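re: ur question from earlier - yeah i can do the single chain one, its not a big deal. heres the input i used so u can compare w yours
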Amino acid sequence: MTGGRTEGGAVPPKEGTTVLMLGNPNVGKSALFNRITGADAVVSNYPGTTVDFTRGTFIEGGHTYTIIDVPGTYSLEPRDAAEEVAVRMLRDYPDATVMIVLDATKTDRGLYIALEVMERGVPCIIAVNMMDAAHEKKITVDVAALQRILGVPVVSTTATSGEGVRHLAEQIRKAQVADLEAIAQRLRGEEPQREPLRACGGCGGCGKC
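and the output i got, formated as tokens:
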């Protein structure tokens, strides 16, 4: 694999775009990070802390991205040093795209922090990782329905085999700022009204791409 906002909430990539890879502990973030970057990474302590984080780069569609593997956290209300660093990173990189990584066997747990991140109004993309483990446990994740409800790109991946990783990297350019009211309407079984489409701003689950 080799900033500004547009209509529809999409954020087109620009040279040096930062991607924060965020999620609960043990969702396969590190394996996914290695697949995306080719394990070309630098590990260091976050400034002023003893907490490690990993940074790497990759190129997709002619754009260079810096990707950071954020320490695992269950919430944006930190309870330990690692979670404090995760919250600090969201604050210190206000223009970053956030890749939220979920465990396909425990999506409900991951969606809690996903919604916390979306409330901050940052462009997001979701990776539903560990799909192989979900299949083994006979757990079905309706990725298309999840994308329709959340209105941001949702991609299924299996980092250990590389399945879906290239598609995930390609979809980063379509990251969206979530419309929380629209999410609430969809959860109530309502269909939010859309403004007339003037130009495609990225995949929000409209079904037109």
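The beta strands are 17-23, 41-45, 52-60, 63-69, 97-103, 123-129, 154-156, 176-177. not sure if urs matches, ping me
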